[in-house]
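Example A, followed by Example B.
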Amino acid sequence: MNTPARAVFALLVLACFLAFFISQHLKHTPTVLQSVRETPYFAPGVHGHELEHISFKTKEADLVTVTVQTAAGANVATLVNRTPVPRYRQCEAVWNGLTGHGRLAPAGTYTLSFSFVRQDRTIPSPASFKLEARVASPPIPRGRTALTCIE
C-alpha cells in the first residue's frame, strides 16, 4: 500500500471513531421535549371525558406555543401562545374540543405541535389522540386553556 492510500485509510478509520463517539454523546443528550402525555381519546359532552389533557416538560426554559392539528397537519386550535415554560417542570394544557373559531371540532384523530420561540424550532408530538363522536347537542365545555406547571 502506498503512502497516499495509507493516509486515506487512516483518515477513514479516524472518521469512524469520531462518528461513534459523537453518536454516543447524542444518544445521552436529553431531548428538547420530554415526557409528553396525552389522553388517548376524549368526547366533549360525555361526563368525565370532556377535556383532552396534554402534559409535557422541556429541557430548557422557553416561550412555548402548543397547537392542535389534524392528522393532515392543518392547525385547529392554539392552546397556549408564546407562554413561558420553566425547564424540567411537568406542564399541563387542556383542550376543550373547540377550534380557533369557537366551533366544536369534528370527530377524528389529532396531533400536537410544540413551537419553541428562543430555540426557533417546532417539534411535532410523537403521539396522536382522538376526538370521539359526541352526543347530538353536547354542552360546550369551557375548560381552562392556560398552562399550569407543577413545582
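Example B, a separate protein, is given below in the same form.
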Amino acid sequence: MVAVPQPAGSVVVAALHGRDDGTAGTCAPGVLPAGPPLDRLAVALPCDLGGPSSRLLVVGPPGDDVLRLLDADGVLLEERPMDDGVAMVAPPGRLATVQVRTADGRILLARTPAPLALGD
C-alpha cells in the first residue's frame, strides 16, 4: 500500500496485489480525511481479484497485529493474525467494522477511504 499525506492532512491511499498465479489486481484507491499519523493508522481497501469474489486488504502498523471483523452488533465474526500488519481476507456478508489489535493491545478502527474523484 502507498499512503501519501497531503498538505491539508488528508491521506491518498492505493494498493496493488499479486496472486499466486503471477497476475496482479488492484485495490480501490481513495482519500482518508485528516486523522491519526500514518504509523498509528489502519486502512481497509476493497480489492478486485478479476472474478466474482472480492477481498479486503487491511493494513495496520507493522508488528504482531490481529485482524478483527465484527458485525453491526459488535459480534466478532472472525479474528486472525496479520502478517507484519497486513491481511487479505474475504469479507463476511455481515461485516460492519474492521479492527486491528496492535502488539501493545491498542484497538484501531480500520478506516475505508472515500473513492478518488478523478477529473478530466
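On Example B: The mean pLDDT is 85.
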